[in-house]
UniProtKB/TrEMBL annotation:
This is MATH domain-containing protein. It comes from the Eukaryota. Residues 51-183, 203-329 form the MATH domain. Signal peptide: none annotated. SMART domains: MATH. Gene3D superfamilies: Apoptosis, Tumor Necrosis Factor Receptor Associated Protein 2, Chain A. InterPro entries: MATH/TRAF_dom, TRAF-like.
Length: 338
């Protein structure tokens, strides 16, 4: 038999424990075997402050059992933006091995208004008022996840009947007792991200013959080429760039689409750049792997080859003032974080 508490009217007195006096100190010795949870993971203490969220005063407690009321559900109360009910089994919740104990639970109610797939993580504490010492026994459980498949959590062995019914302990006095509850709802405000990795098989190979090379301006830039939907260019500095200026030929790969990437997206590229020996059929080849992103748009070799070697006719790199350069590019991986 299940009994629901009647709704309060404007003129009814709220059920509450006596006003708590300032708690100076109290030493209590309990048989810890009288307090247990379903998984024994509880924190038991005594405190002076009353529960901040809910108090349930029961008068004529013994009549619950005598009347065949095996489970009592409180009115709804709101904590953390959710509606709750406190459930007390005066004779223990037998299916959960609560025989010989008081069993107490919390149920989240009003779930029809919650979105599909809802879940609420909460840490709860149950209280029992000691009417002789004017303080509370508190038993705090670990964090629980309330959801549609299990919206009730609690302690099947909150307190043994032997301890509860012993008048010298102060929990049941003149057949009256006061239970309480506090609930800390853990808000889902964690910072998170989603990492997406896409393996790419896109590759590109292209050769350019650049004529009148010694008379080129500051730099030479190829036309754009496309690999896996991303645009690239080859950039050469015939007389060097930066610290290599006047000393080496500088060669770079430029990632054109960097402006279209959001901050946490990167493209891994395997690149080989070759300058061909047009006489002997050899080449000077350099290879690298690099991550291109919004902060790294260009990568290559400021000192690809000394200018003295490049202009040495015996080497065959410059023939009739023409240079032949080849690029092999493979996009190996695209990483996105959001």
């Amino acid at each position: 038999m299940t009994l629901h508490s009647p709704k309060r009217t404007a003129n009814s007195n709220p059920l509450r424990a006596p006003e708590c006096k300032k708690w100076v100190g109290f030493c209590i010795t309990l048989n810890m075997g009288s307090i247990a949870a379903e998984d024994e993971e509880v924190t038991v203490e005594v405190r002076g402050a009353s529960p901040v969220h809910y108090l349930l005063k029961i008068e004529s407690f013994s009549l619950l059992s005598e009347s065949g009321i095996d489970k009592f559900e409180s009115n709804e109360f709101e904590v953390g933006g959710y509606k709750w009910k406190m459930i007390v089994y005066p004779d223990g919740n037998t299916p959960e091995n609560g025989s010989g104990h008081i069993s107490v639970y919390l149920a989240i109610s009003g779930t029809s208004s919650l979105p599909a797939g809802w879940e609420v993580n909460a840490i709860f504490t149950f209280f029992l008022f000691n009417q002789l010492s004017d303080n509370y026994l508190s038993v705090r459980g670990k964090m629980r996840r309330f959801q549609s498949i299990k919206n009730v959590w609690g302690l099947s062995k909150f307190l043994s009947h032997e301890t509860f019914e012993n008048a010298s302990n102060g929990y049941l006095v003149e057949d009256k007792c006061v239970f309480g509850a506090e609930i800390f709802v853990v808000q889902s405000r964690a910072i998170g991200e989603c990492l997406s990795l896409v393996k790419s098989n896109g590759s590109f190979k292209r050769e350019w013959k650049i004529c009148n090379f010694p008379n080129l301006d500051e730099d030479w830039v190829s036309e754009e080429f496309n690999v896996e939907g991303h645009k690239w260019q080859l950039q050469l500095y015939p007389k060097g760039n930066g610290n290599s200026k006047g000393r080496d030929i500088s060669v770079f790969l430029r990632f054109i689409d960097w402006k279209d990437l959001y901050h946490h997206k990167k493209v891994k590229a395997n690149c080989s750049i070759s300058i061909k020996d047009q006489i002997n059929g050899e080449c000077r080849k350099r290879s690298y792997t690099w991550w291109f992103s919004t902060t790294t748009q260009n990568y290559g070799y400021p000192g690809f080859m000394p200018l003295t070697e490049l202009h040495d006719q015996k080497k065959g790199y410059l023939v009739n003032d023409c240079l032949v350069v080849e690029v092999e590019l493979e996009e190996a991986l695209v990483i996105s974080k959001r």
